[in-house]
């Protein structure tokens, strides 16, 4: 389990992507427009968030939350 | 969830058959090398078995059944019951079980039943066949489960092709008053029926000329109306949210600790899901056999196939408490705990 912070979430999601695209990912990047984004990537993100913060985001969460900032809010809602 | 116990029936043997036609995920041309390596690492699937055009699930199951009957030295005339569970029967009508009864040379007095079930189907099939046998009037039965689901996947579907594979299996069961009780826990979420679906070609949306037209879904995916479609993330969520409580409820119901289970044999959707389930259940991953690398996601056949390929030692499984768990199409899920006292497992058949 990790402490739930913006920085930890950003690092977690950057690590899901290939090295050469990680640095371009910011808190406001629209993940859905990235060429690497797919339902498999979304699954990996859900799994990593669950592992790190013990929160399972739903398919609807993942469809609606386009940026890491949105994901941060969804996880926060479920945590607190 | 429906929790129940069935007594006096035991598994005597299991056999599995796969097509010898192998498709390699390393040769998929949808992906760049780096993406492909990551995909293979995440899903854990290197090779898939693809049925040839003339091979049906019933053919794979029949081959498995023949080998099993021979290995157990069973007399076919003693088999009173045959249950065939599949989503890919030979015909829309009639069911395949009667034809299988004839082709296997089973007696005409044999009760033959078809069940339409998906990834949870092995557990559902077990619940039906053991319930029918537990009264003691039917002494020997065969449970055949298999799918040739790859025939229903678009050749332009980069999301499904890397996952799915074909297989057929046979399980031999007999009545035994001394057999340990089998505990089941089953459930359904029919409101999510379209999470995994072949939408056209049934009575609700009959096959039409437009069913044969490719429709663009998203980048890398084009499908016809009679192709399989899956909302991967919905199914992933279902697996994470429902399977863990289902298994924990069953363990409570059976009054068993997690440590009392020797193997947890889950349906094999992909490696990410299996690893996540093991973590959430706090069970060591060594207790979760995985057949994905060589056989992929064989839908309904995945649980018995995994037992044969990953647990059996010298063609036998002796004195093991095994928890079986299937989940998927329906959506439905089911788990069962069985004592494998002395179970024969035939060598896998390639055909």
Give structural notes.
- The complex is a heterodimer of chains A (80) and B (351).
- Helices cover 60% and strands 0% of the residues of chain A.
- Chain A is built from five helices and no strands.
- Chain A has helices at residues 6-16, 19-22, 39-53, 59-64, 68-79.
- In chain A, helix 1 packs antiparallel against helix 3 (39-53).
- The longest helix of chain A has 15 residues, at 39-53.
- The radius of gyration of chain A is 11 Å and the shape is globular.
- Chain B is of the alpha/beta class and 351 residues long.
- In chain B, 27% of the residues lie in helices and 28% in strands.
- Chain B has helices spanning 33-43, 57-72, 97-103, 121-133, 232-253, 271-281, 292-295, 302-311, and strands at residues 2-6, 9-18, 22-24, 47-49, 81-85, 111-115, 140-147, 167-175, 182-188, 196-197, 215-218, 221-223, 229-230, 263-266, 316-328, 332-345, 349-350.
- In chain B, the strands form four sheets. In chain B, strands 1, 2, 5, 6, 7, 8, 9, 14, 15, 16 and 17 form an eleven-stranded mixed beta sheet that branches. A two-stranded antiparallel sheet of chain B has the order 3-4. In chain B, strands 10-13 form a two-stranded antiparallel ribbon.
- The A-B interface holds A 18, 36, 38-40, 42-44, 46-47, 50-51, 56, 58-59, 62-63 and B 34-35, 38-39, 42-43, 159, 231-234, 236-237, 240-241, 272, 276, 279-280.
List keywords for this structure.
heterodimer; A: 80 residues; mainly alpha; 5 helices; 0% strand; B: 351 residues; alpha/beta; eleven-stranded mixed sheet; two-stranded antiparallel sheet; 8 helices; 17 strands; 27% helix; 28% strand
């Amino acid at each position: 389990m990790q402490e739930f912070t913006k920085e930890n979430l950003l690092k977690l999601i950057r690590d899901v992507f290939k090295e050469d695209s990680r640095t371009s990912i910011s808190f406001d990047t629209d993940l859905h427009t990235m060429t690497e984004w797919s339902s498999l990537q979304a699954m990996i993100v859900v799994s990593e968030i669950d592992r790190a913060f013990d929160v399972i985001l739903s398919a609807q969460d993942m469809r609606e939350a386009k940026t890491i900032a949105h994901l941060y809010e969804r996880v926060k809602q479920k945590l607190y | 969830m429906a929790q129940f116990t069935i007594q006096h029936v035991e598994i005597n043997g299991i056999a599995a058959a796969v097509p010898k036609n192998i498709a390699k995920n390393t040769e998929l041309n949808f992906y760049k090398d780096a993406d492909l390596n990551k995909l293979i690492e995440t899903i854990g699937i290197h090779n898939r078995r693809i049925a040839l055009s003339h091979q049906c699930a019933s053919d794979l199951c029949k081959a498995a059944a023949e080998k099993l009957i021979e290995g157990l030295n069973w007399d076919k005339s003693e088999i009173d019951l045959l249950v065939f569970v599949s989503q890919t029967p030979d015909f829309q009508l009639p069911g395949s079980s009667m034809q299988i009864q004839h082709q296997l040379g089973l007696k005409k007095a044999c009760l033959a039943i078809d069940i339409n079930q998906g990834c949870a189907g092995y557990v559902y099939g077990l619940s039906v066949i053991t319930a029918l046998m537990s009264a003691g009037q039917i002494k020997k039965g065969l449970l055949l489960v298999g799918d040739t689901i790859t025939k229903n996947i678009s050749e332009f579907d980069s999301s499904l092709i890397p996952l799915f594979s074909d297989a057929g299996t046979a399980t031999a069961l007999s009545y035994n008053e001394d057999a340990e009780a089998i505990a089941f826990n089953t459930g359904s979420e029919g409101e999510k029926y379209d999470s995994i679906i072949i939408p056209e070609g049934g009575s609700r949306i009959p096959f039409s000329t437009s069913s044969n037209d490719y429709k663009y879904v998203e980048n890398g995916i084009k499908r016809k109306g009679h192709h399989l479609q899956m909302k991967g993330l919905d199914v992933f969520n279902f697996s994470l949210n429902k399977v863990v409580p289902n298994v924990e409820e069953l363990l409570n119901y059976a009054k068993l600790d997690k440590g009392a289970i020797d193997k947890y044999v889950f349906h094999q959707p992909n490696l990410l899901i299996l690893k996540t389930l093991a973590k959430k259940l706090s069970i060591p991953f060594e207790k979760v056999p995985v057949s994905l690398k060589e056989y992929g996601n064989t839908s309904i056949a995945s649980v018995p196939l995994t037992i044969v390929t990953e647990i059996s030692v010298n063609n036998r499984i002796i004195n093991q408490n095994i928890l079986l768990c299937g989940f998927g199409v329906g959506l439905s899920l089911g788990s069962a705990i069985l004592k494998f006292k002395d179970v024969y497992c035939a060598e896998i058949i390639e055909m």
